[in-house]
Amino acid sequence: MQQFVEFLSNHPVLTGAWLLVAILLVVAQIKHLKVGIKALVPQEVTYLINKKDAVVIDMRPIADFNKGHIAGSKNIPQSKLDDSQKELEKHKNKPIIMVCANGIQAGPAGTKLKQAGFEEVFKLSGGFQSWLGENLPTVKG
């Protein structure tokens, strides 16, 4: 412990940089918890679809959507999500599950919906690839 204190006192620039990074990480985590959306594994998504009438929004391009998608999902590409919020208003009180190809784009898109007043917004962890990885059913066309 004494060596740690000595290191901190001998390296004020490194200590300051470490404290700054730690504070920024804590602030980012708090912000994410306030606004961010929860990632769900495919089994949790299946439960929400079957038991809570969740709405699945597939954000992939139409060509990828037509190759295979979760049954009952709506295709709203990421570029058209802002224009489609009025269409989604009727589902504002239902769970909404955002799906993209690999789980990266769904988070920020879901956060936008949550900020627009949608109550329950989630993302499929790992995206459509995780759905396929679990050998869950898909619909083509």
Notes on the structure:
By secondary structure, this protein is of the alpha/beta class. The chain has 2 domains: 2-33; 36-133, Oxidized Rhodanese, domain 1 (3-Layer(aba) Sandwich), CATH 3.40.250. 50% of the residues lie in helices and 12% in strands. It has helices at 2-10, 12-35, 42-52, 62-67, 85-88, 106-115, 127-133, and strands at residues 38-40, 55-58, 74-75, 96-99, 121-124. The protein has a 5-stranded parallel sheet with strand order 1-5-4-2-3. Strand 4 (96-99), helix 6 and strand 5 (121-124) form a beta-alpha-beta unit. The longest helix has 24 residues, at 12-35. The protein is elongated and about 65 Å long.
Record field, number of beta strands: 5
- Give the CATH H-level superfamily of the largest domain: Rhodanese-like domain
**Measured distance between first and last alpha carbons:** 64 Å
| Basic shape | elongated
Give me the Rg, rounded: 20 Å
From the 3D structure, determine the CATH topology of the largest domain: Oxidized Rhodanese, domain 1
Helix and strand element order: HHEHEHEHEHEH
User: Major beta sheet, specifics?
Assistant: 5 strands, parallel
CATH class of the largest domain: Alpha Beta
Number of domains: 2
Order of strands, main sheet, comes to 1-5-4-2-3
Classify the secondary structure makeup into a structural class.
alpha/beta
Number of helices: 7
Work out the helicity level.
40-55%
What's the architecture of the largest domain in CATH terms? 3-Layer(aba) Sandwich
**Which stretches are poorly predicted, pLDDT < 50 over at least 5 residues?**
none
Strand content: 5-15%
Average pLDDT over all residues: 91
